[in-house]
Amino acid sequence: SPRRVTANKNDEKFSAMKAAVLTTSVVAVVAVAVALWQGSPKERVFTKAELASYDGVNRPEIYMGIMGQVFDVSAGRQYYAKGEGYAFFAACDGSKAFVTGDFEGDVHDDVSSLTQTQLHDLATWVNGTYHAKYVYVGLLEGFFYDARGKPTPNATRVDELIAREKIDLVKRKDDERKFSKCNARRSKDENIVWCDDGHVPRRRSVFGGQERCACFATSNADELNKPPQNNLPYDNCPPLNSTCAR
């Protein structure tokens, strides 16, 4: 019938419009995705050879990388110029050394061996110090970004570990409120931990695979006698001693 034919024509029009909208949406999403991983058109991606020339000698500027981000640290010339205390960080990405303190073997950007806590601390340096004090100038091709500025799988993994550490950090703080930290003293002659009266020290495994000294009330038998992998007594220390050697 004519009514049915009209309906078919309307269906065809609707289908065509739907297809056009979907095509436009897909193109828009792809365009946004490409823009996101390619980075800003004005954002520079340095090679390691290019960054190496920004040492304050070959060029007047001093650039340095951390976690694949490049900063102009010329304003901190008293720290980063040749012969100064942090000169080994200039003109390269020495991310790993920021954490390990090995300023000879670890001045590079491969942080795959660092723990999630160490990576979180490193990210704090980036955001709390370098973005706050110095001028961001671009990205570095290497461990964190490829030649087009796209985050590498390494960078994605690092981001995942940092996000996990943020969650575990909250859990650890909650755990510290429940079981207070031990007192501690270390010198060339001794290394001891102790708890106030009525409490004993235990090696407590906490979120993120870390271990800390926690004080347990001797009256709280339920917690004190939980599986030993979580609340280990110190070696060669009687279980109910309030002071133990580490």
- Largest β sheet strand count, sense and barrel closure: 4 strands, mixed
Rg (CA only): 28 Å
Number of helices: 7
Category by helix and strand content = alpha+beta
Could you tell me the number of beta strands?
A: 10
Order of helices and strands: HEHEEHHHEHEEEEHEE
- Name the overall outline: elongated
Helix content: 40-55%
The low-confidence parts are: 1-39
Give the N-to-C terminal Cα separation: 92 Å
Strand residue percentage: 15-25%
Strand order of the largest sheet: 1-4-3-2
Average residue pLDDT:
84
Report on this structure.
With 246 residues, the protein is an alpha+beta fold. It has 7 helices and 10 strands. Strands 1-4-3-2 form a 4-stranded mixed beta sheet. The protein has a 3-stranded antiparallel beta sheet with strand order 5-6-10, with no helix packed on it. Helix 5 crosses helix 6.
What is this entry, summarized?
The protein is built from seven helices and ten strands. The protein has helices spanning 2-38, 48-52, 77-80, 95-100, 116-133, 153-178, 221-224, and strands spanning 44-46, 63-66, 69-72, 135-140, 183-186, 191-194, 199-206, 210-217, 231-232, 243-245.
